[in-house]
Give the backbone structure.
Amino acid sequence: MHPTDFTLSGALAALNEGAISAEELTRAHVAAVEALNPKLNAFITTTSEQALDAARASDARRKRGEAGPLEGIPLAIKDLFCTEGVRTTAGSKILGNFIPPYESTVTAQLKRDGAVFLGKANLDEFAMGSSNLTSAYGGVLNPWQRKDDPSARLVPGGSSGGSAAAVAARMALGATGTDTGGSIRQPAAFCGITGIKPTYGRCSRFGIVAFASSLDQAGPFARTVEDCAILLRSMAGHDPKDSTSAAQPVPDFAAACARSVKGMRIGVPREYRLDGMPAEIEKLWRQGLDWLRDAGAEIVDISLRHTKYALPTYYIVAPAEASSNLARYDGVRFGLRVAEKDSDLRDLYERTRAEGFGAEVRRRIMIGTYVLSAGYYDAYYLKAQKIRALIARDFDEAWQKVDAIVTPATPSAAFAEGENTDDPVKMYLNDVFTVTANLAGLPGLALPTGLDHQGLPLGLQVIGRAFDEETVFAVGAALERAADFKAMPAMRAGA
Amino acid sequence: MTYIIEGESGPWEVVIGLEVHAQVTSNAKLFSGAATAFGAEPNAQVSFIDAGFPGMLPVINHECVAQAVRTGLGLNAKVNLWSRFDRKNYFYADLPQGYQISQYAHPIIGEGAIDIELSDGSTKTIGITRLHLEQDAGKSQHDQHATKSFIDLNRSGVALMEIVSEPDMRSPEEAGAYLTKLRQIMRYLGTCDGNMDEGSMRADVNVSVRKAGEGFRTRCEVKNVNSIRFVMQAVETEARRQVEVWESGGTVDQETRLFDTGRGITRSMRSKEDAHDYRYFPDPDLPPLVIDAAWVEGLKAALPELPDARRARYVRDYGITPYDAHVLTLDQERSEHFEEVLKHTKSVDFKKITNLVIGEVFAVSNTAPTTSIFMTAPPVSVASSIDLLEEGVINGPVFKDLIIRIGIDPRPPIEIVEAEGLRQVTDTGAIEAVIDQVLAANADKVTEYRSGKDKLFGFFVGQTMKAMQGKGNPALVNDVLKQKLS
């Protein structure tokens, strides 16, 4: 078997048995990155030399009997995580020269556990987007192709498009992502892999470039549910440097993947049946529920009454926070500075931010500034906060009746560059199934369970109670076993 | 004591409210571990959080919270067990995050009140509206380079308490007394050092004027005044300016003004129309600040004695006047020094001790304002000196001299007295001999005195004491002189 075809848990087993060394495993992935990245553009920055050094150090640790839980596993890191000494751009021109002198907590924990970093994965600028097309470093090509139009340039989804594409194309065994409104789950679904946004507060946000602080949450991508569980265990945990991180114990998520769903109650929210939803999505959903019923779960119709307000609520709360979070990119202390010889402070701000930020980021800063303005605050921001509380209450009520909720992950399969781009609102609709979990702070997992008529992957989403990722993993693993998803993208290492 | 501005149209009353920014005494900043000491090299005390770097997050410093609660308790104010931090958004080069974290909507401390002491001996209660915690910004320096501005972020993120008063003050004196009292309370509590020249305490002064019986008229805010004297001046000039505006048929516009200390005037900084829209919203990086009632009770129980209580105790236990008690307690260190003197002296004549401490010891201490009174006048030596005076070993003039000496001379006062021969002379024979010489040398003055020029008696006392190097017992000198001159 080619080393890039390992699952993460399979690679760990092979490393433990001595069937392969971390250096060999990393070398195979570095080669895959070098071969595929010119086409896919999944990485903004590659760190092949550091990766090989880290792999050799990992082999030495293993030899000394000091192997960590991720010892020698090559990963892609979304370029939103600050990595000490390695350029961190957030997909933006404004941070094009920014080399953090510190490491994010999540990546520090992955390193602590032995992981090897292949490079910094491409993303929508400041994680704002559903296509990866807002990146200042170019779009990412989805490694999957339409059956009847293989030349169509499909997007990998976003914002964590580079991470998802890298894992799907077997350039990495896993990747980190962040999810503010669906930025892990939507690209996972578009790229035919698995990704989980854990409960808000499960992973530290320290050292992650902030988009919308009350919604942002880090999570893993991998090609199996169990692999995501293994990665999440290393990424999660309370961090005193993040006041919103939860003081909750981190369970053995991988063990939960083997739990039976027998007797579990699975909720089907009627509000997620959208008008004009493709029949393929409807069918995929029904199929998933049938599989769970076959595995002994009880399917329960539920209502999440305020669902239709979720998207507008999200597109008020997230830009509001972003408009404030992005104020620090002002050309004064770090990053891009654009000024003329006689620029005053205001001119410096205007030039730097106009040149440094792309159109989508500027649009969201303006929306956010508007909804927080005197005279509009009550009508927009405050009202959105109230609806957000109602959306969370809908879920609280649902948990009286069910243990997990299953929905489609996205309203369609991956679209092509140029589609959906004429109208920003159309693009925002990609998040329709995913934003509710962010607004309510709940864990949501996306996994591939079928293909559309073009042979493109389609995914389901499992939502669980706060800090009950274990049930989410159990339901996800049951779906994964039943779906037995074996399809692979056209563009991948070894293909 | 009513303060009135006499305008052409009649008398005007002045209405004043103060917003005081007090730097919290703490080793670390409000949301970062960086140090807060004054006078460090520029940008030497800056963490990545204070500099607003990507991905950095604030974590509340609980000592700053405790200090705010202590201050609230000292202001007899309501402590809010649930409070919240908001972001105040604006762009400036010395505001690295692009927002200031501040408790806008839900402050940690609610309504309270303090009593201020006025020069006519009366007191007045001033309402406190609220106290909230917030971050300080950095400092822009525009005078260091011809074309560039320099930014020092040492202050960036330092914890401030903004203390807002009700518009209860009616004169510059009351504004000054309020600031004095506030600073005194915080110094007693150890929550703010109150050093206005180091920027540890600044005031925004809200001033309006009105005719008797009217509601409030439009106010102006004079920003960032950094001494009590300047606050009093700013109130006066701003009130006079407003009276002139109203009386010339104009209207006072709500605006922010600056006090030009050089020219003694206020000038417009920005009008209401130019006011920033700060776009306040709850800081999503910080959960609400929830504190425990039992913890607050613990802080309350551990509070030091505050000036009002101490003053009342002095009046009650020592039988001294409220004014003397006020003077003794104005400064916490001085009042502790006073109590130390009481502990060591054999005297129980509290009134006399009070007079000696206020009159002589404080006078010496005033000549070296930056040195601790415990150094300029060690309390044990002060107590011994008082005992020597009370026992008649030395006289008053020598006591004065001794109080100056004990700050430099480490020997016990009695040793100084013996070594320098400062004992007072009570030997009537010796005194008579000196007086005889003085009268003989001033025969003409003796004649004048006897012919009715009584005032010359003091001259003879002075000459006698001078001849005795100040050591004569004053009562005996008086008696003998009277005898000889009669």
Notes: Residues 305-420 of chain B form one domain.
